[in-house]
Amino acid sequence: MDDAARCTLYGESLWISPYVFSSFVALREQGVPFDMVEVRLIEGEQLGDAYRDRSLTARVPSFEHDGFRLAESSAIAEYLDEVFGAGSCRLLPEGVRERARARQIMAWLRSDLGALRDERSTVTMFYRFRLKPLSPLAASDAEKLVNVAEKLIPADGGALFGRWHLVDSELAFMLHRLILTGHDLPPGVREWAETEWRRSAVRAYVEHARPAAVPEGYWTFSGTPRPEGA
Q1: Cα separation of 119 and 55, whole Å?
Q2: Does residue 222 sit within a domain?
Q3: pLDDT below 70 — which residues of the chain?
Q4: For an engineered disulfide with 113, which of 21, 141, 153, 204 has Cβ 3.0 to 4.6 Å away?
Q5: 135 is in which domain, residue-wise?
Q6: Can you point out the beta strands (E) in the chain?
Q7: 120 and 42: one domain?
Q8: pLDDT of residue 9
Q9: 221, part of any domain
Q10: Alpha-carbon dihedral sign for residues 220, 224, 227, 230
């Protein structure tokens, strides 16, 4: 992969973004060498001309390969599959229907479950706070998430589509919003999610160094509800 030497992934400095996680894991699983650049979102670095004009949408993650810059984790995954997937680790299933289903789940994880994402934001996964019980709406989201997981996870507890694809790690990440904040899950779902959490590419992201405390400006910048004691 000679061209891969010119790859750069732009993420955020707290290492808590599920979207940066997706692109980071995708690159690691495909074995694509890349440089990692942290963008200081709280300071508005993404809004500067240099970042905004190259990424178009001033968002993270963005990814650069051989002078081409692309943002949005789902678009990055599809680009990586088209450029590096042949003869390597495919990020999406090869079968038309399986690939469509994987895309459905990945899009759903990005667009639904809003109350759960608010009340068990990723900052609560990697930093410890006293958390209130889930509201009825967030509890409903959690139930929906578990129901979908139970329908997708094979009886043998293996990968969703026969072998690992990016959707496996993305679903496991969402389930860990509950696992890491002390919620009970059905044993089969929990075991599946924890198995996925042990993948080396996932651990490389999860165990990466983070600031000792959440910067004060984070809560205003992100619009994330501030947990008790934060």
Answers
A1: 29
A2: no
A3: 1-5, 43-45, 47-49, 52-53, 55, 87-88, 229-230
A4: 141
A5: 96-206
A6: 7-12, 35-39, 62-65, 68-71
A7: no
A8: 95
A9: no
A10: negative
